[in-house]
């Protein structure tokens, strides 16, 4: 395969209320296939700083990059994915706005999911999902031990990021893949399906919670590998 159609570098971008450990089950599967994998640590302070962190991760790669985003991470990759090194985009139960669109704006046409309503303020404009919210709406198909770990490692998320608007949508010029989580309680599944259709993504639907990469890591890794090899 030519270099332009095959990427051995995979950059994973987590979403709100999560950190790089949300990719902990997918990373070993990709490493075993010979990929170089980097999980970005988004500060979740501002959209601009999250995009900057992702761009630094892309810059550190030695060739073409498959850029993967979960949840709010989809907004980040929509902006950072305009980098010329990025050859493919993978949206994992993620937001895929167009230029000038925010998460709030693109979600208005769909039923409000219950998960975001469990967020509680912690000061300085930051929020956390309540432990109950994580257990019942964010990661409901994980084990009790895994839920407890997600609650313990949940980073504070700035509420301002949900108003972020990409300046240019990378999916308009890059091939995209999308994983719809049909039991998602953070983003309406019908909203995910609509976004996948809008960006003309190669789409896979899995019977999973919002954290599909933790409950169905093999299937998620396979989609990422398809994107890295250009398989549609």
TrEMBL record:
Keywords per UniProt: Hydrolase
Domain of life of the native organism: Bacteria
One of the Pfam families matching this protein, by short name: Abhydrolase_6
Single GO MF descriptor: hydrolase activity
Domain AB hydrolase-1 positions: 10-222
UniProt-listed SUPFAM superfamilies: alpha/beta-Hydrolases
InterPro entries: AB_hydrolase_1, AB_hydrolase_fold, Sec-Metab_Biosynth_Hydrolase
Keyword Hydrolase: yes
PANTHER family noted in UniProt: AB HYDROLASE-1 DOMAIN-CONTAINING PROTEIN-RELATED, ESTERASE_LIPASE_THIOESTERASE DOMAIN-CONTAINING PROTEIN
Protein name, UniProt field: Alpha/beta fold hydrolase
Organism: Terriglobus aquaticus
């Amino acid at each position: 395969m030519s270099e332009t159609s095959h990427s051995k570098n995979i950059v994973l971008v987590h979403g709100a209320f999560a950190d790089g450990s949300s990719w902990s089950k997918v990373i070993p599967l990709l490493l075993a296939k010979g990929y170089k994998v980097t999980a970005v640590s988004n500060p979740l302070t501002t959209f601009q700083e999250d995009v900057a962190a992702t761009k630094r991760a892309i810059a550190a790669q030695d060739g073409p990059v498959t850029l993967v985003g979960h949840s709010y991470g989809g907004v980040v990759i929509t902006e950072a994915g305009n980098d010329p090194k990025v050859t493919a985009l993978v949206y994992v139960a993620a937001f895929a706005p167009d230029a000038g669109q925010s998460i709030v704006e693109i979600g208005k046409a769909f039923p409000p999911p219950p998960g975001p309503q469990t967020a509680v303020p912690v000061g300085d404009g930051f929020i956390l999902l309540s432990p109950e919210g994580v257990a019942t709406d964010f990661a409901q198909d994980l084990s009790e031990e895994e839920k407890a770990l997600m609650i313990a490692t949940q980073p504070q998320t700035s509420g301002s990021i949900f108003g972020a608007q990409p300046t240019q949508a990378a999916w308009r010029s890059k091939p995209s893949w999308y994983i719809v989580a049909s039991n998602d309680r953070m983003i309406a599944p019908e909203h995910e399906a609509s976004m996948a259709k809008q960006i003309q993504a190669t789409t896979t639907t899995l019977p999973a919670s919002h954290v599909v990469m933790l409950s169905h890591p093999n299937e998620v890794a396979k989609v990422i590998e398809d994107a890295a090899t250009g398989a549609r």
